[in-house]
Amino acid sequence: MLNNNPSTPAQVKLYFAYTSPFSYLAKDPAYALEQSHNVRLRFIPYGIDIRSVYGEPSARAERDQRKVRYLYLDARRFAAERGLIIRPPRRIFSARLAFYGAFCAEDQDLFRPYTDRVFERFWKRELEIEDLQALAGILREVGADPARFHGYAREPESEAKERLKACFAEAEQDGVFGVPSFVVDGELFWGNDRIDWVIRKLDAAGLRRSTAPG
């Protein structure tokens, strides 16, 4: 049951991946929920194995190629409406290191500025998201100390690896199968364009703010 106690904001989970264009599109509307409603947004890293779903780009069936092209077309349509740029990546990327950077930034209360830059630059093709030094540079840029991030990347069984495993385990419990996925009071909403349904659920629970937080 959602808690509408003003002193204790209700939790809204958002499972995301930096390599998902629709996660990028969900980010700012998700931020806005904390202004419009008495909620606390929690970003949780999650991803699927694109190769297992669609296969290697060079080996995909024509039908799967058309589907992927269409998904990016939709993403770019959504982006154009908001003045964002989404350029389809030239290959499949892993978001693992970027997630490790997110843990480092989060521990220093700098998750959002880090995340904003990673999303924007990756989808403009201005960031090599698997490059340790590039991600460390973003951490420094937002004012974070990247020392722990370097440790995460060096250590095979790092704390970050365990944290990421825990995120994936939580996603499994929540029934998540793709990103972006919102979870509100145990109910799953998959896709950036499901935000209106999230808002309706929060409104029905009496969580809309009468005034924006000061």
Sheet-strand content, in percent, reads: 5-15%
Distance between the termini: 27 Å
The spatial strand order of the largest sheet comes to 2-1-3-4
CATH homologous superfamily grouping: Glutaredoxin
Biggest sheet character: 4 strands, mixed
Unreliable segments of 5+ consecutive residues: none
User: Assembly state here?
Assistant: single chain
Looking at the structure, the CATH topology is Glutaredoxin
How helical, in percent, are the residues? 40-55%
The CATH class, by name, is Alpha Beta
Number of domains: 1
- How many β-strands, per DSSP? 4
User: What structural class do helix, strand and pairing data support?
Assistant: alpha+beta
Give the overall average pLDDT: 91
* Helix-strand string: EHEHHHHHHHEEH
CATH-level-2 architecture: 3-Layer(aba) Sandwich
Number of helices: 9
The dominant shape is globular
Radius of gyration (Å): 18 Å
Topology diagram in text:
Blueprint (H helix, E strand, L loop, with lengths): L9 E7 L4 H16 L2 E7 L4 H5 L7 H20 L14 H12 L3 H13 L8 H10 L5 H8 L4 H15 L7 E4 L2 E4 L4 H10 L10
Helix pairs in contact: 4-5, 4-6, 4-7
